[in-house]
Amino acid sequence: MPAAKTSKRPKYKRKKKKLSWRSKPEKKWTLVDWKEWLWDTKFSPYIRLRDCLRTTGSPDCGQCVTCHKVYPRNRLQAGHFVPGRTDAILFDEDCVHAQCYRCNCVLDAWPEYYRFMQKEYGQEKIEQLIDQRDEKVELTVDWIKEAHEYYTKRIEEFLNGNNVFPDEGVG
Length: 171
What we know:
Layout: H1 31-55, E1 61-63, E2 70-72, E3 76-80, H2 87-90, E4 96-100, H3 101-106, H4 110-121, H5 123-132, H6 141-159
Antiparallel strand pairs: 1-2, 3-4
Helix pairs in contact: 1-6, 4-5
């Protein structure tokens, strides 16, 4: 009796799933993990809270800078004006603002973001941020830890009713 035919499937190598900083012990974190940690735990929450307070006066909801719709804070994202997310602009408060998912990820809402930036900061600042993207900046773990402390304090101040907006962030 002839053997049944078996179809041979090509063998594909499975991509190793990237481990997030959340699933690794801190002593094994890379610089990328440290940056993601700062972004996820403090910087993005700070930007969204700051812009909620600026646009609605409430810590619970805020306005998308591009479509101007009001969303709950947890549905807003911290979106970069200058694409690329290089170290020079990654944590620049003037370059990151609250956006809804649709404007930040789905639509090409850059023209609207550009108009917001012109009104908020002016053309000179826009050009500075665009030029800044290509600067070589090396973030360190110590800087990231210092920034984490700074944004922890700023978030606490905002939530305690001290809505004073500083001119500069972490230096």
